[in-house]
Amino acid sequence: MRKETPLYGLLAEFDTPERLLDAARKAREAGYRRMDAYSPFQVEGLAEEVGFRWNILPWLVFIGGFAGAGLGYFMEWFGMAVSYPINVAGRPLNSWVSYIPITFELGVLGASLTAFFSMLGLCGLPKPYHPVFKAPRFDLATKDRFFLCIEADDPHFDERATWQFLSHLGALGVSEVAS
Asked: What is the pTM of this model?
């Protein structure tokens, strides 16, 4: 007896970005919320139709940049005013104007490193495998085809009804995606 693999979702193939965009819009109107779209290039408005939401990344980058700038300023201040004070040309030990370049550079470094590592973490990367990679004809997603996947854990998902729904949207084909 063959053990049946759990279903990840249903994948519909489209030949134009307009049909994909229209299908995503109709799927959202029909109540589907857990879906993703794949295309060989950016399709304007597709992210909104699929339902991507705001995330915390901008705030993490701001905090990383602010922490980097604060660390840069503290490092300069501690080195010049506390750890090794030297009177140079009668300037005060806490001459903040001379700390600006290092403060700025470490702020940019902190923000960029935070952005890089936060993006990896929030996207769940590195992820060398995704269930849609084994779907038939999915290799065309990098060439000239557009795909919409409605995931099986969507509260509105019913395999037969979703299959018929995707077929009526003008899909070239609908296929199951195993987990």
From this structure: 0.73
